[in-house]
Design goal:
Chain lengths: 194, 194
DNA sequence: ATTTTAATTATCAAAATTGAAAATCAAATA
DNA sequence: TATTTGATTTTCAATTTTGATAATTAAAAT
């Protein structure tokens, strides 16, 4: 009985807004005021539903890591059996498919890692896991490639991808995006020749 | 006559500290207090020597662009005649030679571009110029490569390089750095085979 | 309709940040 | 040494940000 709780939805709403603010202003620049405005809620509701600044960051990191894991896994599972690598790169470099905010949040959390050793540990693992996920796709289609080459191409594609999405705050850079995608494909192609 | 002015040195001192803070906390997170502490000066001296927040950012951008142009030019001029590309990549991925803070400042300014169209214009040009500089080195040693391939490899190497240095706040990631450098070399090598 | 549960709003104090000006101190020269 | 120029420190008010609690309102069940 009593008024039904909407805490779960509010929490999501707030964390989504927080994510947007972190992507735009960085971890240190995302003030509670901005988050509240972005969420369309009064500031005290942030405290009521999630907590103070530290609680907020902890919740964001938790959400980021779990969502990332799920979405990467889902993407890999959705890849076709043939031409999986090319399809993966198509998706990573398609601005309509890939979520730039995801990468911007990752970069903000990586930047904040300098002040937060515990966060650094988590983000190191996240980075290596992401690269390892790409590597597993590459390995399926270039099983004759050396382990070092697989490591290199996976790190290279990840780097080009991160960098490409990190340019989005400047606005349209479709020429660089296009060249970057082509570079990723060249990297992958060089695997098949090894 | 009168007491000699130290404004130029103070200005440099302050902008250097500001740069460090921007690299660590982002444009929005670099407060005057933090800058003053980093510079080892009283806060009013920032205002006295450089100005308010906006003046500070304008001065930083100006300094960043001019220093970047000079240092990239100097690096390219210092390249040997033979194996210029390999040497360039050696330098870009050598943590003792390459300055990670330079890349972190660039990323922070790119992130801040979303709120500042004028800054976006400058940083777009800067990004394209940097890629074009890499391209000019590549072109010298792979003159038979197609223009599109040169664009792609230049953008790819730049992206891998930016991304690698942007990971430094997490601490030691030498495995990823090593793999990234190898990827950059593979990209370049694929040019020669085209 | 009353009760109960929880969302929402109002309000306050403390701390941090910024902008700005006045006052003071230091190092040159005449 | 007196003067002048400018660095440095002191101080103040205004604004923003944060943390926290009390008061109010809304929506369900009995």
């Amino acid at each position: 009985m009593g008024r039904p709780s909407v805490k779960d939805e509010r929490r999501e709403q707030i964390l989504r807004a927080y994510e947007t603010c972190v992507a735009r202003f960085g971890v240190e620049g995302a003030s509670l005021e901005k988050i509240a405005e972005e969420a369309g809620l009064a500031r005290p509701l942030i405290r009521h539903n999630v907590g103070n600044r530290d609680d907020l960051l902890a919740a964001l990191v938790d959400r980021f890591l779990s969502r990332s894991e799920r979405s990467v896994q889902r993407m890999i599972d959705a890849l076709p059996d043939s031409r999986a690598t090319e399809t993966l790169i198509d998706w990573l470099f398609d601005p309509n498919y890939s979520d730039a905010q995801f990468v911007l949040v990752a970069e903000a959390l990586i930047a904040a890692s300098q002040e937060d050793p515990a966060l650094a540990t988590l983000m190191k693992r996240w980075t290596r896991d992401f690269i390892a996920s790409l590597r597993s796709v590459l390995e399926n289609e270039a099983s004759n490639a050396s382990s070092d080459d697989l490591d290199a191409v996976a790190a290279g594609v990840a780097g080009i991808y991160f960098n490409t999405d990190s340019l989005t705050p400047m606005g349209n850079m479709s020429d660089v995006r296009h060249a970057s995608k082509r570079a990723a494909l060249m990297l992958v192609a060089s695997l098949e020749r090894s």
